[in-house]
Amino acid sequence: MLLTALAVSSPIVAADMFPDSKPSSGREASRSLTDSGQALHGCLTTELRQAEVGAADVRPMSSNRRGAARWLNRHPASAPTGATQVISGVELRISRPVSIRLDALPADDRDARLQAIASGVAEPRRTLSDYGFPTIDVDVLVADLGPTASGYTTRVRNRPVPTIVVSIETPRADLYRATAHQYAHAVVQSLSEDFSPTWGEAFAVWTTMRALRLERAGEYAALDERLQDMHKSLTSNDSTHAVGNAAWLTFLESRWGVAAVRTTVEELARGGDTAAALERGVRRVSPSRLRQAYADFQLWSLFTGERDDSRHLRGASRLATPRFTSTASGLPALSIRRDPGIEPWGGSRILLFEGGGETGGLQIGFEGDFSARWESDLVLTSQAGAIHRVPLTLRDGRVETTVPLDGLAEAVLLVRRIDADDPTPRGYSYSAHREKGYPFELAETSVESIDELGLLVQWETTHEHRLIGFNVLRTRASGGPRVQVNPVWIPALGAAGRGVGYRFLDTEAEPGVRYEYTIQAVTELGLTSHSGGLSGTRN
Predict the structure, then answer these.
(1) What is the pLDDT of residue 418?
(2) Per residue in 229-263, pLDDT tens?
């Protein structure tokens, strides 16, 4: 397959505005950006867009790097074209130096490279169109950006469509992904010329991972890093976290479907405050607010890697097992502002307890910086593997609560900031210790056969803490399921320092059968604690 040579004269280029930092080639310009370590997976689009938009709240660029960025933004208009070729309905414009290099390759290698680039436009165009995103035309330039950059997307003056520049130095196996990544950038740029560069990168990563079903995509490592740095703001313009914000889009898709990703992208394209745009994106697909969605996102981020239960984030098993911001090495535990400060729409996860076979209660205290707005949940995992999420009610950023240790395998405290006015990271303190006898202690228990009426189960408490009621659980001593025999809760009538006696007649107990009974206490939070076993036989 021969490339058609074109004799194209280079247009006159305006005088360089940055004579002291003028790169001499695409390789040199790309190296100026990638040597800083800021380019994300070889994609230069975020850096170029930040230089183009000139936002005040992004990391400043040096004059050399800004000059390199502007050179690359102008390059597609001035690059001499050596050949053009249409593959899969996509026209590829090949720079003159690259055309010469391709002609020197074996035909199958050359064709495979160009096919990968063309497919990287054609296939995501179809997929994203199916998901309701706009179908757009793009100008594709195959150029030499050196080995450290895979490509970028830009808007060239006097060209009606975005231009995708793909580096021929990209390994052949990665050309498809690199081009698809840039096509996603082109889609959001077509929605708004001022689309957030960092959220454009997040969408491009989501596209390569989800829309193209690249299940083993290398981008998972970036999501891992982002999920480990949950204290960083979801709304930050820090480009080092941009790729990882694809985790938010993955959550939206897992929670509400692809429509939630589309509505979020559409709202981000409207511009303005990022948190407000994310709020609108969520509200268009659900009755939830952003604060509720972020609470779910924080919870779901717990169940990745070895903790994946196949019910939360899509692809969670391929993500790393989450690290905790801090871990209580034993009880009692006290941490006074030791953890990293939390930015707005950021959070922390704290492992308070891990073990089994404990009795009593786990008393937990939390206090956040008074100048921020806080929310918090407890995530309790039983020894049987059941997971219970307990929303905590904070007053002035503080809360204190107690949960039963009976049957508890793990207790994790989730903390998050939900204010957006102050970008300053804010700290917090927490404590945890055992509370003996929580939520109740028994003085006496008995099971007595009452003539032909049934078995009378009796118990007397010495004290009760924040209980709403009791249940009587029964099982056959020979084995079998444990069932609740009382149809409704038996109201708890005791208090701290004051016990009460209770009776329950089990009329359904069969004569001659030995039964085991357990008294189950239910706390105000809906958590349970159990007594030791009681046994009896009906006459």
Answers:
(1) 94
(2) 999 999 987 777 777 899 999 999 999 999 999 99
Q: Say if strands 398-404 and 163-167 run parallel, antiparallel, or are unpaired.
A: unpaired
Burial 91-125 (b: 16+ CB within 10 A, else e): ebbbbbbbbebbeeeeeeebeebbbbbbbbbbbbb
363: helix, strand or coil: strand
Domains annotated for the chain, with CATH where assigned, are 1-191 (no CATH), 195-322 (no CATH), 326-435 (2.60.120.380), 440-537 (2.60.40.10)
- Residue tagged 């006496």 (tokens): 444
CA distance 501 to 490: 12
Select from 342, 348, 354 the least CA-distant residue to 381: 354
Task: Enter the pTM of the model.
Answer: 0.87
- How does pLDDT run across 112-141, given as a tens digit for each residue? 999 999 999 999 999 999 999 999 999 999
Q: Provide the 10 A C-beta neighbour count for residue 356.
A: 12
Q: What is the pLDDT of residues 344-355, one digit of tens each?
A: 999 999 999 999
DSSP states along 280-341:
HHHHTT-S--HHHHHHHHHHHTTS-GGG--SSSSTTGGGSPPPPPSEE--SSSEEEES-SPP
Nearest to 484 by CA among 459, 507, 517: 517
Residue whose structure tokens are 């160009």: 114
Alpha-carbon span 375 to 389, nearest angstrom? 13
Integer angstrom CA distances of residue 508 from 280, 474, 515: 56, 11, 11
Q: Which one, of 505, 506, 537, 502, lies nearest residue 521 by Cα?
A: 502
C-beta separation of 91 from 161 below 8 A: no
3-state secondary structure of 119: helix
| Type of residue at 115 | Q
CA angle 246, 248, 251 (to 5 degrees): 110
pLDDT over 90 (residue 48): no
What is the token pair recorded at 374? Answer: 């806080």
User: Are 109 and 236 a contacting pair, CB within 8 Å?
Assistant: no
Look up residue 13 and give its DSSP letter.
P
The two three-digit tokens of residue 264, written as one number: 């979020």
User: Which tokens belong to 469?
Assistant: 């009621």
The residue whose two tokens read 């204290």 is: 231
Which tokens hold the place of 244? 């990882």
Q: Which two tokens stand for residue 36?
A: 């800083």
The gap from C-alpha 63 to its chain's centroid, in whole angstroms, comes to 35
Residue 480 neighbours by CB under 8 Å, 6+ apart = none
Is 381 strand, coil or helix? strand
